[in-house]
Structure formats: structure tokens, C-alpha cells
Amino acid sequence: MKTLLATIASTLLFSTSIFAMGGDKPGPNGGYITMPGTYHVELLDKGNTMQVYLLDISMKNPTVKDSTVSLKYIGEETKEVACKAKKKHFVCEKPNKNLGKFTKIELESVRNKVKGTTASYKLPLRFE
Q1: What torsion do the CA atoms of 43, 95, 116, 57 make, to the nearest 10 degrees?
Q2: Whole-angstrom Cα distance, residue 11 to residue 19?
């Protein structure tokens, strides 16, 4: 009985932590969430640009202070773009509006001087 309860508890804890990272539902700004380290990254497609929010572990408190973001669009060709800081997010140019020839986006980020691992987003963007 104790083993069964421990298994159920660990399963619930594990599944809750998966959903807490995003992926299956929109983030607080309606975008796609990844967790490249001790913080979350939220990516939003805004037509001609991408917006990137660097959020804390609770998916709150976006910041650009002591932070950087760059995107790499990968497919038939690779196109790397730097992103510009706004008040609470970064804006990144897109090589073209529909991104049809690209299969993924790799996002490099530093939040408050803490570098995360490369966040990868499959294209087309969708919640899974």
C-alpha cells in the first residue's frame, strides 16, 4: 500500500511539473513556453516579428535588465537575428512573415546575467 501511494504521489508531482513548464498551453502573454534553466522563456508570433518574454520560475516578472536574446531560424537555410529590448520583452525580426522554409527556432537567452540552455521550438508553432 505504501508503495502504491508513493507511486501515485510521484506520478502526480511529475505530471504537475511538466504542465507547469508550458508546452501544452499558452503562457501568461499567450505565447509558447520553454524552460532553459532557472527561468522560463515565452515566445509569441506577432506577424512580422517575434516577441520574447524572460519570466521567472513562477512565469511572472518579465525583465530585460542584464538580459539578452537572439533567435536562429533553421531550415533550408539558417538565419540568425539579434533581438531588441523593449520595456518588458524583446522584439526579434523574422526573415519572412510565414516562416515556411524554416523547421525550427533556436533561442539563446540570458536573464538577469544567468545564461540558459538553448530553447528549441518546432515550426509551425503549436501547443502540444
Answers
A1: -10
A2: 13
pTM: 0.82
Q: CA nearest 91: which of 25, 27, 22, 31?
A: 31
Length of the chain: 128
What is the number of other CB atoms lying within 10 angstroms of the CB of residue 5?
9
Query: pLDDT class for 22, splitting at 50, 70, 90?
Result: low
For residues 83 and 71, is the Cβ–Cβ distance under 8 A?
Answer: yes
Mean pLDDT, the chain, rounded, equals 86
Q: Assess whether pLDDT exceeds 50 at residue 74.
A: yes
